[in-house]
Amino acid sequence: MPKTSANPENCNYYFNWNTLLTRSGINDLNHSTGDPCSLVYPAGKWKTPSEDDFNLLLTSANVNFSNEGTGAIKFQNTITGNTVIFHQAGWLFGLGCTVSNTTDGQYWTSSTSPLGVLGKIFEIGNESAGPRAGFDSEAKSVGASIRCIRN
């Protein structure tokens, strides 16, 4: 079930950029660094997608994306029929565990801004005019969702 303002999730489901553990309920913004997807079983076979990896979803001629229900967008390969769904899970900004802006979703990439100060976010939105997807730069202390892909 997607996490929305009507169905919120605590901060333990959100990661700071490139951290191995989720944010804790005690407002901890500092964790051991590393790719959290590298720990998915079998370890070492998964990674957090880069901006380029996510961009393949947006630019492939064989992928369509559309609103999925009222709280997600769906990417579907037009040849295989395979799908991946991104929920509007919101994000955590600053200290605390209050989920912000549950009308879209932010997913960390492994990429950084040109100077490396900010992390790159893949952002989606399910809107009446159609699905929205793109990239943004955020402070690495923002709590966002992650998706893992095979190496």
Strand and helix map with partners:
Layout: E1 46-47, H1 51-59, E2 63-68, E3 72-77, E4 83-87, E5 91-92, E6 99-100, E7 104-112, E8 118-127, E9 130-139, E10 149-150
Antiparallel strand pairs: 1-10, 2-3, 3-4, 5-6, 7-8, 8-9
Protein name: Fibrobacter succinogenes major paralogous domain-containing protein
Task: Please give a structural write-up.
The protein has 151 residues and is mostly beta strands. It has one domain (11-150). It contains one helix and ten strands, in the order βαβββββββββ. A hairpin with a 3-residue loop joins β2 (63-68) and β3. It is globular. The mean pLDDT is 85.
Give the SSE string: EHEEEEEEEEE
Give the strand order, joined by hyphens, for the main sheet: 2-3-4
Oligomer: single chain
Alpha-carbon Rg, integer: 15 Å
| Number of distinct beta strands | 10
The stretches of 5 or more residues where confidence is low (pLDDT under 50) are none
Helix content: under 10%
* Overall outline: globular
Q: Tally the helices.
A: 1
Biggest sheet features: 3 strands, antiparallel
Protein name: Fibrobacter succinogenes major paralogous domain-containing protein
